[in-house]
Amino acid sequence: MRRDIPVTVIFFAALRERAGCAECQIAVPDPATVADVWPRLPKRIRRSDAPDGVRYAVNDTWADAARPLIAGDRIALLMPFSGG
Amino acid sequence: MSVLPLTEREIDVTTLIAAVVDPEHGGIATFLGMTRRESGRRAFAAIEYVAYDCLAASEIAVITDDARSRFGATVVIQHRVGMIPVGEASVAIAASAPHRPAAFAACRFAIDELKSRVPIWKRAHFADGTSAWFDDLDGAAPASSTPGPHHA
Question: Is residue A84 included in any domain, yes or no?
Fold first, then answer.
């Protein structure tokens, strides 16, 4: 029987404003990768497919979309940067 | 004295310069990125910056290490976060090297890398009281509030 994996999704900037919070808990099916997170966000947050240039971090370390997830992972969804 | 990669305080470039002084280095190049009013568009009153603190700090450290490897330069970078009024610095870089070409090159390298690699975002606060994130790319903000690309 497939189980869901509970993970935490962390937001910054515009995504945080849309979410109304700094992070949220979601469940992804097992097995899952980072790429499975975006489509499972509430529509009010994601609004569309993941934009070009979005980057990811898992547990405060850069990660690519193919990285497998385990329960308790903290995934940061990072929209294109605009510092400087 | 060590330079914090992120600060909520006004940037003091003299602190950055002091951090890269080296008796073996004959050139120091500096860069300041300033918040600007954006003439020709809706005027900004301020720019707000937020960072993914731990990852931004570690990425800035990677950039300074890369600059040392590539150019033999000592580089420090400081980015301000929080609300920054127009006309104040949002980022500062100081790069020292044995000769000026390497100092200039390292400084340019550091700001270019920062803009593409460091997880920091900014929001324009307009003079009329509205605001818009620069990373809100899919039209979430009202069209009249979307500032478009902005370069330091």
Answer: no
